[in-house]
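Sanity check

After download, print the first record. It should look like this:
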Amino acid sequence: MTAPRPRIEGDWLFVPAPQQHNPYRLFCFPHAGGDATAFTPLGHALAPAAEVWALRMPARGGRGRQPMPADFDRLVADVVEALHPHLHGRFGFYGQSFGSLLAYEVARALPAGQRPDAVIAASASPPGDWAGPTPPQCTAEDLLRLAGMGELIEAAPELRELALSAVRTDLTIRDTYRHRAGPPLAADLYAIAGDADPMLDAPRLAGWARHTSGDFGLAVVPGGHLLATVEQPGPVDVLTSIIGREPARTGKEEPWLRPLSI
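Expected structure tokens:
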């Protein structure tokens, strides 16, 4: 039997490995400058237990001519509108770096009956750490190099310029983010970091715990800053474990989600 072809849902969503039986949906939010296709290997690795729906950000890839919303709040509102028709059954959010922040704020903005079972924040400090402008030393070039994409883009100058443009667009949006205090998220929350991530102080992951009233877990896994990429699926074992759990909503930390010590 031939596997279903990848499909696009509207402007915002890419389904790399469609499933026939309506499994758990994992909505994936890319890093700064990233695109939905980065989650293609993850989509195939998680099937058939889960179906990946990856966010297609504006101003890159197939949406290169569509402008990014004016600020972070408008971006959140647009993503909420795009996701609304697809939020049924069991589903979760997985974000990488900037995508973790976006996933968390989108989850907060959704109506109570449409929030995800779990938010998985990979390669990202807690929301309060994103306050204020991007540090001047974190240029688009620096971020691409530290994310492990230096050799890839240096081999193709035209690809390099496209990648830098997308990163700069997302950094501009990131600079408009303002963290607003509020009730903790009524969803389980998990924080993940790569053990060779040069951009994240892994012990800071514990700060995510105060942002949920559900269960909290953290893990350090093999990898750098970008865990799921076009070349590797990312933290499949951890995600499979989370997807297989029933949401507990106990507000307790989950010690079982600690593959490596931090």
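If your output differs, re-run the checksum step. Summary of this record's structure: The first strand starts at residue 7 and ends at 9.
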